[in-house]
Amino acid sequence: MAGFAKTRLIPALGQQGAADLAQRLLEHTLHEAQKAQLGAVELCVTPSVTDAFWQTLRLPQTVRLTDQGTGDLGERMARAAQRVIAEGEAVLLIGTDCPQLNAAQLQSAALTLKHAQTTLIPAFDGGYVLLGMTQFDSSVFSGIAWSTDRVMQETLNRLKRLDWRVKTLPALHDIDVPADLQWLPIAWLDSAGSKLMPANALAFEQDFA
Fold first, then answer.
1. Is residue 192 scored above 60 in pLDDT?
2. Which helix (H) or strand (E) element contains residue 68?
3. What per-residue confidence (pLDDT) applies to 2?
4. Are 147 and 100 spatial neighbours (Cβ–Cβ below 8 Å)?
5. Domains of the chain in sequence order
């Protein structure tokens, strides 16, 4: 949705360009999640699933669409994780902004949960791309300074206090700010032409996620 998705990329791509990239990233994430064949794939969205925008997307029929609900990012992720774990399932929480995340890495993360209570794929900017859990504790999500370079470390600190076994996998690049566009697959840039190229290469935001 133009003006709503990937707003920190708007200085480089414009509102529609940022929205187009967000949709491409979403499609990639869902494709890889289904390809991994690990179980049900659920897309937690905002705005609500009743918003007309979601009817304009050709989402796979096997993907379950649910509301993120209210609260900050931690509250929304906690709510989803608690619900799935309460049903006796492990959960892999992933973002939709990492073109490097693929089915093989999702399978590796799931495999580590056979021997650990938590698994993480860090992002190079200090956040994380994936959080997998077999147990739930709200402290993993509460009081985190989201969109900063401390997210991963703060999360690890909480997991250490819980004395949970943690497996950390190799870090990946996600796409948050104009400087991150260099990590897009070359084929995406070639197929999209100038739409995914920075309109102003100097318009870098000073931010972390």
1. no
2. none
3. 66
4. no
5. 7-176+183-192 (3.90.550.10)
In sequence order, the 6+-apart residues with CB closer than 8 A to the CB of 31 are none
What is the layout of strands, in order, in the sheet containing 128-133? 91-94, 128-133, 118-122, 166-168
Residue 23: CB partners within 8 Å, gap ≥ 6?
5, 57
Closest CA to 168 of 146, 152, 188: 152
Burial level of 125, CB count in 10 A (0-12/13-18/19+)?
buried
Residue range 7-56, pLDDT digits in tens: 888 888 888 888 889 989 999 999 999 999 999 999 999 888 998 888 88
Which residues 6+ apart lie within 8 Å of 81 measured at CB?
Answer: 91, 93, 133, 136, 141
The tens digit of pLDDT for each residue in 52-84 reads 888 888 888 899 999 999 999 999 999 999 999
200 pLDDT above the threshold of 70: no
Q: State the Cα–Cα distance between residues 147 and 8, nearest whole angstrom.
A: 11
First to last CA, the chain: 21
